[in-house]
Amino acid sequence: SQTIHQWPATLVQPVGSPLSLECTVEGTSNPNLYWYRQAAGRGLQLLFYSVGIGQISSEVPQNLSASRPQDRQFILSSKKLLLSDSGFYLCAWSVKDQPQHFGDGTRLSIL
Amino acid sequence: AQSVTQLDSQVPVFEEAPVELRCNYSSSVSVYLFWYVQYPNQGLQLLLKYLSGSTLVKGINGFEAEFNKSQTSFHLRKPSVHISDTAEYFCAVSYNQGGKLIFGQGTELSVKP
How far is B15 from chain A (nearest CA, A)? Predict the structure, then answer.
């Protein structure tokens, strides 16, 4: 069966520090991969999605970037974090004709 | 452009009472519809989906939803809720099953004893 792993589960970082969140999927090949952010009291905003290795589409301009170095690995990064980057980050995967499945998320707090 | 509106941000209800969480979408083309549930500090879990066929869709945990094309709605219902149903519920729409999702703002369901 397919599984998705996100880590870390929680992260506290100072303003201006770098960020790297990782997401991996097991049990499937060539999935579509997604990064969402959920701010407190708000819905989910799609940040990036990828349909293959090295293929990244950005949905909103921001301080973050994404990379897909391997088929089932999706990384969310920042060179210098802002206070506004705080939130709950969710990774998701899907394959053709199947709905998206989500990881357990990373709670990011910026101090 | 697609958009999803969840009409209630919070729904308080007593245990064993029925509940309906409302969702409306805007799209000029055929869409796929989904309901997800999010328990505190967790990811989203798929409750049910409408792809085609019967407009009444049954999901997990006793939930069901009805697709109404003329009203562009996809309301979620449960005849009798439990304390454990307390969570945030998200309605979402997509042009294709494996593609990008557009989410509503969420409805916080609070079940009280």
Answer: 24
Dihedral class, residue B72 (left if φ above 0, else alpha if ψ from -120 to 50, else beta)? left
| Residues of B in Cβ contact (< 8 Å) with A100 | 46, 98, 101
Beta strand spans in A1-111 (E): 3-7, 10-13, 19-26, 32-38, 44-52, 55-58, 65-70, 73-78, 87-94, 101-102, 106-110
> For residues A44, A48, A51 and A56, what is the CA-based torsion angle, rounded to 10 degrees?
180
Question: Do the Cβ atoms of B99 and A32 come within 8 Å?
Answer: yes
Enumerate the residues of chain A whose CB falls inside 8 A of the CB of residue B100. 34, 46, 49
pLDDT in tens, B44-94: 999 999 988 888 999 999 999 999 988 999 999 999 999 999 999 999 998
Span of A15-19, A86-90, B37-41 with lowest mean pLDDT? B37-41
Peptide bond into A8 cis (omega under 30): yes
Residue B62, SS3 per DSSP: helix
Element (DSSP H or E) covering residue A17: none
Contact criterion met (CB below 8 Å) for B110 and B13:
yes
The CA–CA distances, whole Å, from B1 to B27, B50, B70 equal 7, 20, 18
